[in-house]
Amino acid sequence: MATITLYGHNLSSPTKMVLSCLEEKQLDYEIVIVDLSAGAQKEPQYLALNPFGLIPTIQDGDLTLFESRAMIRYLAKKYKGQGTELLGKTVLEQAVVDQWCEVEGQSFNSPASTIVAQTIFVPMRGGTTDEAAVEVNVEKLKKVLDIYEERLSKSKYLAGDFFSLADLQHLPSTDNLVNTCGKGDLILSRKHVKAWWEDISSRPAWKKVKKVTEKGPK
Amino acid sequence: MATITLYGHNLSSPTKMVLSCLEEKQLDYEIVIVDLSAGAQKEPQYLALNPFGLIPTIQDGDLTLFESRAMIRYLAKKYKGQGTELLGKTVLEQAVVDQWCEVEGQSFNSPASTIVAQTIFVPMRGGTTDEAAVEVNVEKLKKVLDIYEERLSKSKYLAGDFFSLADLQHLPSTDNLVNTCGKGDLILSRKHVKAWWEDISSRPAWKKVKKVTEKGPK
After folding, report:
1. In 3-state terms, what secondary structure has residue A105?
2. ipTM of the assembly?
3. What is the CATH number of the domain that holds A129?
């Protein structure tokens, strides 16, 4: 099997999402760091791979792919039968996985990533955190997590009794909320969300991603 | 085949997205109107189907599903071999379809739906359009559409030479931009985006959706 190339950055949540999938699927890959501080993601060479100038991008043989959620779905489908199965076994199971993947993309991600950006990345670039924006998005996220709490009181994982892409998509931003932003209470104050988080964040694949990205370039 | 039930509303873009898929797949379905003006989407009976209190929701046999983009993926997969094929034939084609579906969900939808909400729904409810928000989102959408223009200069549809879910996802909001919001220039000033729009909006399935939803309750 040819090695997969991942263009990304160790502080990027979408990069970590794809890394987590590569590790779950036990795939060989190499990482090419895109130097965001030098604006490398906006240079013609990178824009030829990813016209939006965003990270990450993957190359696997003849395929170049952007959009992290499309990448992990591709990897889970293409390498079915290797490593962790992440899609669901039947069309019905897959529909429920897709449903919770969309909840992450449409309802969880926007408030979570805004909180992460405002509390980590804005100060890192010398700016001042917009506390009002953080507060508005904390309130939005609480409402989403109340629905997760109800859901996770009935099933171990978001899509059922099996770990799937739907859970995996939540790892990087939730890790930042708990371990970097000081917003762990959002997760840890909800009994079933806490148990789910402790379960999914203790997976060996995610621990490897943490180790790989913590020692990488900032 | 049991009839599929769609809970939705004729003015809702996600409802129209799912209707378009049901029509492309030539499926039997019945529509249950959720009376948004009476807040029916927040009543316990509906929240039991869709805990987010959003429309639409579908029921197909034992499956109840929310998130419009997950619904159309389910319908395209479950009813493969019937009506229009919308997923791509190979894993590689499917990856490119998924990529452009994610572009719609992550980059196109937010500015497009904000423009639609501010110019149609806010005044409809007696409010005043936030012109500054419209302008900011028009500028965001222009950048996205410049990338579409480049893409569509190389392939007839977003994911290749075949109509797919990636194109279908754009129908309701683009129709509003062109035909209701007075923002048609965003689409019609870009040669390849215009040709794509004229092609996809002339599909019989979409014309049927327009007809069904125009005469429905407001």
Report:
1. helix
2. 0.95
3. 1.20.1050.10
